[in-house]
Amino acid sequence: MKQEQKNEQAQHMQKIALADLSAYVQKLLQLPVFVIQTEQADQKDHALLITLVGDLGAGKTTFVQALAKELGVTESVLSPTYVIMKSYDIPAANQNRNTEQTISARRFAKLVHIDLYRLDKPEELSALKLGAVLADPANLVCIEWPERAGTLLPRPDLHLHLSSDGASEAERFVEIIQG
To answer: What is the pLDDT of residue 12?
Structure first.
């Protein structure tokens, strides 16, 4: 990527200190895509899909780790590069943190973390049975390297572009695009 393009891209991105990533995720969980009225919680007919784009070391897995922590996942969240897909249970206690609205976990029972980096061809996705994963409204699905899926993924509810270009080791740039 040319330097001018990188500079233009950085203008649209927010610099986040990795030490503040949990607070950033908490704010993100307040976006309309996550916050729905309790009476609407059961009306969604598909998983919420977050795609994460960025170079190696941009912070995609680090973001998913912070998200998992904020959702109450107690398991250690590691990059699923070699297993490609890993699911984590979201504790039910996080599903009713606010009496007026179901926030963040809304209807989610599972966080599904997928890393498509090792995918050679989009057709290899069929082995993951991704259709069933994305059809389940109880799933919150985060996909790293979604570009490796070609056109086989639906439009994401939320698209995050992460970059370490021009950032120190302790910070990253993040751009959020709502689907």
So the answer is: 76
- Find the mean pLDDT for residues 16-39: 83
pTM here is 0.84
Tokens (6 digits) for 153? 């993924």
Average pLDDT, the chain: 83
Higher pLDDT, 9 or 114: 114
**Under 8 Å between Cβ of 96 and 107:** no
The full set of domains in the chain, from first to last, is 3-178 (3.40.50.300)
Is residue 87 exposed (0-12), middle (13-18) or buried (19+ Cβ within 10 Å)?
middle
Q: Which two tokens stand for residue 127?
A: 């082995």
